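User: Helix-hairpin-helix DNA-binding class 1. Structure?
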Amino acid sequence: MKKISFVLLLPIVVNCFAQTGAGARRTALNSSDVISCRDPFAIFYNPASAALSSSRQIGFFYSPSPFELKELATFYAAYIQPTSIATFSAGLMKYGFELYNVKTIQTGIAFSFYEHFSAGINFSMQNLAIANYGSRNFFFADVGLTAQINDRVITGVFVKNITGTSIGNFDNQFPTFFCAGVFYKIIDAIDLYASLYKEIGYKPALQYGVEYNLAEFLNLRAGISDFPETYSGGIGITFKSFELGYSVNSHFELGLSHQFDIILRTD
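Assistant: Predicted structure:
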């Protein structure tokens, strides 16, 4: 009986999955940088982006009260290891509280080829637990591609949940979406980002972001999205191999969310 109830309840709660994506930089830019993201949290977006990293990286991200609700607290950890063969990655995510929580374990691999192209694939297992209804495991795969046009332009695409993971007779319980984007370095100190998201069953969403290297150790970031209408901003502070990030985003109906991360890079 609990199993049946869990299946019936799933379409209602699935849209409650973590609303805060990984990475203070990414949230400050309002998701617009997911194609060319070079920090370890890239593995949660375009799998091919991991191949853009030239150093070993580990990162930890925390959003204590998304939309001012501590019950939605979200934690991510990510690791990227470049090798001469490929770039390997691993990550985990924890979201929710004692009555409803989600845990994800993810691994990925990315390759560079023909000098200016990269491709990648991620595999993840997600556990959804609902108090008094039990828990279930689900498996997903994501694929992506990037192309470096020149020193100032990078483009790419990826598909999230290409497996179309579902359960029972319910469709679209877990989002499957396509994303295409572009990165453009206007001058050495200013980067522009633009991405288009298209989730099955919903209209396309556009995200734009800008990053300004104010000083060697300080980056200022801002972003905007049209659907839903959100605004964001943040900073990144770099000290040798460490980077500290902070971001805040505002949803027109749900309020503010604050995010923090720390990243360590080694050769």
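The chain has one domain: 2-266. Residues 1-18 have pLDDT under 50 and may be disordered.
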